[in-house]
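Fold this sequence, please.
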Amino acid sequence: FKYISTMHGDEPVGTEMMLELIEDLLQGYGSDSRLTQLMNDVEMHFMPLMNPDGNQAGTRSNAYGVDLNRDFPDPYVDPVNTPTGRAAETAAVMNWSAGKDFDLSVNFHTGALVVNYPFDTNSSGSSVYTATPDDDFMIEISEDYSSANSPMWNGSFNNGITNGADWYAISGGMQD
């Protein structure tokens, strides 16, 4: 499982949330049976701060003005799946991810209280529902997450979730 946060430097809340999660996992290991089992059964990797330069400057983009959440390969606009020519942070995440066999990942952002599940893009570039081959599963795990957060579940999104492209389409997002 891959956890990433603060790819937008001006969204530091995710970093704090992730550090709290890590602390809870470590402190609960051996004394909380659920956390102990989780840590024994799930290989977890954490990147609490993907954009340190943007975070330091309080800006969305990195030090070179690149929005890292628009810099990943895109199946329609930029289908070449290589880190070459991308921002250093994007290339580092791509190389790190290529060396692992992640089943799922979470990317914490600040803003709307919602679980945004794939896909974020589509061939038209329009903001329309764009299902994944495992769309039912994506909905199920998204609702599992949001149902544990009453303000999210009961917020402005139905059950606290949305398909990314249905909400607003982007190209170069990490989840696609």
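Strands lie at 2-5, 45-47, 105-108, 115-117, 161-163. The longest strand covers residues 2-5.
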